[in-house]
Amino acid sequence: MFDLCVGVVVEKAKTRRRRRKGKGGDNDNDGDVMMRKRKLSEEQLSMLELSFGSEHKLETERKEKLAAELGLDPRQVAVWFQNRRARWKTKKLEEEFSKLRSHHDSTLVEKCRLQTEVLRMKELLSEAETEIGRLRERVRSSDSPAGSSGQSMEQGFVGGGEFGMEGLESVFCGNAFQWEDHVYYM
């Protein structure tokens, strides 16, 4: 059952036949038949894969050469390359999708981290604003006439002799001073 053909042992298999489909959509029952697709051997597959690895496109000359080397019909080699390119493209798209999905997921995690950081910063800002309000209130209460400590500080600065400014009481007046007919507020 085996023939020796150019140093390669080839198993003869029963030929399976299938009917050709009519181009007009009608079934042609005129007995026109063609050979069914046979399963490729491991050697044929490895040669085709090796050839595909070097170049994804198949030129006519290369197709004829491969078909002759593998003992296949050139059309079968062309169809194999077409199918293999489709699988290759699908795999590339899946890999790209996987990379994009990973990038998207890491971006979402970063977004959540930043949103948490924004909330924390808003909370700190609110606490700071509350503290500023308390400090303003404390300053207002010390500036009022009822507040004795604020009054003594102003009096010590304006009229006191600690800084060697005796006689300048007419220049300094509370939170303002006069210089050459202009009043400057502090």
TrEMBL record:
Protein name, entry field: Homeobox-leucine zipper protein
Protein's cellular compartments: Nucleus
GO annotation, biological process: positive regulation of DNA-templated transcription; response to auxin
DNA-binding region: 33-92
UniProt record similarity statement: Belongs to the HD-ZIP homeobox family. Class I subfamily.
Limits of the Homeobox domain: 31-91
TM ranges: none
Principal location class: nucleus
GO terms of molecular function: DNA-binding transcription factor activity, RNA polymerase II-specific; sequence-specific DNA binding
Function: Transcription factor.
Keyword list, A-Z: DNA-binding, Homeobox, Nucleus, Transcription, Transcription regulation
